[in-house]
Automatic annotation (TrEMBL):
This is histone deacetylase. The keyword Ligase does not apply. It holds the Pfam family Hist_deacetyl. Residues 42-342 form the Histone deacetylase domain. GO terms for biological process: epigenetic regulation of gene expression; regulation of developmental process.
Length: 647
């Protein structure tokens, strides 16, 4: 069993005489035994809680906490939120000795694996949160952190899902309210900062005004796990529980400290003041942390510590953290340490965040405030435009720093830029006519290859070079950044062909079949740019110079593309076919790919299909992940699939 338990102490007054808070920690090695049945890798792995525990020990903070071993949940407590059937099914898993029977049960749930120790771990995880919450409610401890697994917040009354078997936090909340009325806990605030929506917890307290459930999560209009509308901000609870369920559904990935703290300052904190909880339970998943492979967000340990600190102003600091998700071992260990240091109140929080929230963040926050202001008057004020107009600046172009030839490249850029200026001058006096006309027309450029990564695409507009690129781009004559960016999927087949490219070296580049196929979906990042800029992108994509006297796509060609769907260009080149994918806000969506004839040659093998190079894949994955379209896992699988399926 644990090296925990024995190191328990009550040394919460520090040697400097300052009184510190009595912080409980639960850790029990037994919960590491829950694992995949055949030793396959899985992000929800035993090392998650081990690395957290080791970090707290190495930092010397666990020694200053009251350490508790795990304790098993009682059936009757689990049944406060789960059905009898669900509790006995999970209990039976340990006695069903055959793996195949457990595998069959697991396969009937969504994202669940089971082994012979899963049941024991699940009972310990739930029981440990109950025990810790009880001690905090009684006042024996001031606050605490239960380092438990399997996680809990996806588990529904009659269903395990999303790596969760029992809803640990929900069981603890119901236990305090229903089984221990003498403790005087009448109102509980549950905060769920796991990157996923706490669908299970929401269900369990849907009609219950004693529990205010607040979940902030990546939602992407229902596309992010757990998919659907449950995590929408319109889901406010029902009956007596109406207004006591608050969802903050991010529309995109990459959210960081600024976004989370904005949700705290403009939603959670004002509501918490009005609700005035007797205790706070925190579904503390660390999968919104920077570096998490599933979350794609960017919260730093500093961000977590500020969020936690702000919550400690309520319920006289009675707060219980329970681990939920979090899959980057280093990130979860550091974030956990930052949180425990806040619980101990041993030193001021160090750090800073410089960015502003995303535009989409303000949109979400305003929508939530509007919807919830019917129940929480403090949300009724309109946010000042000074506040919501603070935006994160466009990321600067990243130059390769690991490359030994950096200096040559720098020279190269200077060289090309200066030539560009001369040409600019020349263009101004001689052949500006097409540029002037086309600069007045907007198009959406739909990218499906490396241009999905914004810094890479910006090289075609502003000039420059990013990690992995072999050459410097001169950019467009008009260096204005895209006016708008959005993501969409189109029913075209993505594939990779050609032996190598000038930009990425050996390996295929991305094409789409210009013909639609309703069985296929290609993710595309759409940039709203001028038709002049689109021509400069086309020039560069096809290896041509940007100082041409005539455009590849003029106003007549644009009309033709809109009418016919696609038009091959005189330039030839790999991307010698301009395709119109439709319209958005009355602006045509254009992309560039090969011709239908070339697709036939790819099919017959006359032109080879080729998987993309590593640098190219990495750039596409970065685009999909940083653009908030897919998780890293999903992005890799998506590209892998396109690169390996026969045409
Ligand atoms: C607890 C948690 C995530 C499930 C993701 C399934 N679950 N694809 O983070
Ligand atoms: Zn999660």
């Amino acid at each position: 069993m644990a090296m925990a338990g024995e190191s328990s102490n009550n040394n919460y007054g520090d040697c400097d005489g300052k009184s510190h808070r009595k912080v409980g920690l639960v850790y029990d090695e037994t919960m590491c035994k829950h694992d995949t049945p055949n030793g396959e890798d899985h992000p929800e792995c035993p090392d998650r809680i081990r690395v957290i525990w080791e970090k707290l020990q190495l930092a010397g903070v666990s020694q200053r906490c009251v350490v508790l071993g795990g304790s098993k949940a009682e059936d009757k407590h689990l049944q406060l939120v789960h059905t009898k059937d669900h509790v006995s099914l999970v209990k039976s898993l340990s006695t069903k000795k055959k793996d195949y029977r457990r595998n069959r049960i697991a396969s009937q749930w969504n994202s669940i694996y089971l082994n012979g120790s899963s049941s024991e771990a699940a009972f310990l995880a739930a029981g440990s949160v109950v025990e810790l919450a009880e001690k905090v409610a009684e006042g024996e401890l001031d606050c605490g952190y239960a380092i438990v697994r399997p996680p809990g917040h996806h588990a529904e009354p009659d269903e395990a899902m999303g790596f969760c078997l029992f809803n640990n936090v929900a069981v603890a909340a119901s236990y305090l309210l229903d089984e221990r009325p003498e403790l005087g806990v009448k109102k509980i605030l549950i905060v769920d900062w796991d990157v996923h929506h706490g669908n299970g917890t929401q269900k369990m307290f849907w009609k219950d005004p004693r529990v205010l459930f607040f979940s902030v999560h990546r939602h992407e209009h229902g596309g992010f796990y757990p998919a659907g509308d449950d995590g929408d901000y319109n889901m406010v609870g029902e009956g007596p529980g109406e207004g006591f369920n608050i969802n903050v559904p991010w529309e995109q990935g990459r959210c960081g400290d600024a976004d989370y703290l904005a949700a705290w300052d403009h939603i959670l904190i004002p509501v918490a003041k009005e609700f005035n909880p007797d205790i706070i339970l925190l579904s503390a998943g660390f999968d919104a942390a920077i570096g998490d492979p599933l979350g794609g967000c960017r919260v730093t340990p500093y961000g977590y510590s500020v969020m936690l600190k702000k919550l400690m102003d309520f319920a006289q600091g009675k707060i219980v953290l329970a681990l939920e998700g979090g899959y980057n071992l280093d990130s979860i260990a550091k974030s956990s340490l930052a949180c425990v240091q806040v619980l101990l109140e041993d030193k001021p929080i160090q750090g800073s965040s410089e960015a502003y929230p995303f535009e989409s963040t303000w949109r979400v926050i305003q929508a939530v405030r509007k919807k919830l202001s019917a129940y929480w008057p403090s949300l009724a004020d309109v946010l000042s435009s000074n506040l919501i107009n603070q935006k994160t600046p466009t990321p600067i172009i990243v130059f390769s720093s690991s490359d030994s030839e950096t200096e040559d490249y720098a020279d190269d850029i200077l060289d090309q830029m200066s030539r560009l200026n001369i040409e600019n001058h020349h263009v101004d006096t001689v052949s500006t006519s097409w540029r002037r006309d086309l600069s007045k027309v907007d198009v959406w450029y739909a990218s499906f290859g490396s241009n999905m990564w914004k810094p890479r695409f910006l090289c075609y507009i502003q000039g420059g070079q990013v990690e992995g690129m072999k050459k410097v781009c001169v950019g467009s004559m008009d260096k204005t950044p895209p006016k708008q960016i959005m993501w969409e999927s189109f029913p075209h087949r993505l594939f990779f062909g050609r032996e190598s490219s000038v930009t990425w070296g050996v390996g295929g580049v991305a094409f789409i079949n210009p013909l639609t196929d309703l069985n296929d979906q290609t993710h595309m990042c759409l940039y709203r740019i001028t038709l002049e800029q689109f021509n400069d992108v086309l020039f560069q994509e096809n290896g041509l110079k940007v100082d041409s006297d005539s455009p590849l796509v003029d106003l007549d060609t644009l009309q033709l593309v809109e009418k016919k769907g696609s038009v091959p260009l005189a330039s030839g080149g790999w991307y010698g076919n301009v395709v119109c994918l439709g319209k958005e806000c009355d602006v045509p969506i254009l992309t560039m790919t090969c011709t239908v004839a070339a697709v036939e040659k790819f099919k017959s093998g006359e032109i080879p299909l080729r998987p993309p190079s590593e640098a190219y894949v990495n750039t596409m994955v970065r685009g999909l992940v940083e653009g908030g379209r897919l998780s890293e896992e999903e992005a890799k699988a998506y590209i892998d699939n396109a690169a390996s399926k026969p045409l």
